[in-house]
Amino acid sequence: MAVYQTTVSAPVNIACIKYWGKRDTKLILPTNSSLSVTLDQDHLRSTTTSRADPSFDKDRLWLNGKEESIEAGGRLSTCIVELKRLRAAVEAQNSAAPKLSTFPVYIASRNNFPTAAGLASSASGFAALVASLAALYELPATPSQLSVIARQGSGSACRSLFGGFVAWEMGSAPDGSDSLAIEVAPREHWPDIHALICVVSDDKKGTSSTSGMQRTVETSALLQHRIAQVVPARMDAIKDAILRRDFPAFARITMQDSNQFHAVALDTDPPIFYLNDVSRAIIAVITEYNRAAGAIKAAYTYDAGPNAVIYTPKENVKEIVELLLRYFPQSQPFPDPFGLDVNNEGK
Ligand code: 2P0
């Protein structure tokens, strides 16, 4: 008997221009476009296996070994239903294609990074789920077309369908058909940029992104200014900086946008605080590092939590890790995937 099963993985992405706010909460249509860098480390991915079988009782999903319920009309169900619909269209075109769209699916997804690392697992998770079912169903869909479906799982997931530098264009169609991810430049265009992830706290965050951003939409006047007056020009400017490999321009915009995102969180009623004292101290260290160098050599950015991501050209990574370890000594040795010997174990 034929076995219909595929395994696909998808990476984490970290935004430089932040997504924060929905104009349609059901379709997950954003109030502004956003742009991210997809992390290409093997150890920051979600891997999803999907299997279709007529003997299965119903669609079921396991996340890191624990079964999650698939609520009718919920985000998981929306993605699965949409992918089955596209499969049914393939079957209608080709009568020899097995009727996988009528079989229940079992989906098992795992993150190879601890949830405690404070990285958004919903982005890589929904991207892997959509890519895995699309492969199982042999859909003739481009990553941008699949991003429209992943977006309905979690907004930021649409950007994890591509590697490298990725824009999520907000679009204007009421049905969301043009709210999708596009590749700005592949990873190979600018391989020199590295992302340093600084885990400040592994506590679960107080305010979820989904509820926090809607409170911001409802209460923040600053968000309206950001949407109308700030982000469109910033999207153009950062794309241009990426295409020209202009690190200082890329870094300045990235820091400005992180700062404005956290300002908008603070402008929410009641206010949302994602940064803590250590986060702010890291901002001060990076600001001083750039000032002392007389050039922008590193950029910090923070999502909906206190952990820092620092973008910098490879040549600065060792220096920055040493600087951070000097100000924030670690009880555990620094994980050293680059062989930088920042723990001075070679001595
Ligand atoms: C981003 N974040 O652009 C921004 C920056 C958090 C701060 O995308 O409701 O988990 O699932 O669409 O995608 C977090 O939002 O929210 C996010 P939903 P999501 O990466």
Short description:
This protein is of the alpha+beta class and 347 residues long. It has helices at residues 75-93, 121-136, 143-151, 209-219, 221-243, 247-266, 277-293, 317-327, and strands at 4-11, 13-17, 22-24, 29-30, 34-38, 45-52, 60-63, 66-68, 105-111, 165-169, 180-185, 193-198, 299-302, 308-313. It starts with a strand and ends in a 20-residue tail after the last helix.
Description:
By secondary structure, this protein is an alpha+beta fold. It has 2 domains: 4-189, Ribosomal Protein S5, domain 2 (2-Layer Sandwich); 193-327, Alpha-Beta Plaits (2-Layer Sandwich), CATH 3.30.70.890. The chain has 8 helices and 14 strands. It has helices at residues 75-93, 121-136, 143-151, 209-219, 221-243, 247-266, 277-293, 317-327, and strands at 4-11, 13-17, 22-24, 29-30, 34-38, 45-52, 60-63, 66-68, 105-111, 165-169, 180-185, 193-198, 299-302, 308-313. Strand 13 (299-302) and strand 14 form a beta hairpin. It is globular, with a radius of gyration of 21 Å. The model has no long low-confidence stretch (mean pLDDT 94). Ligand 2P0 binds at residues 15, 18-20, 28, 34, 120, 122, 154-156, 209-210, 303-304.
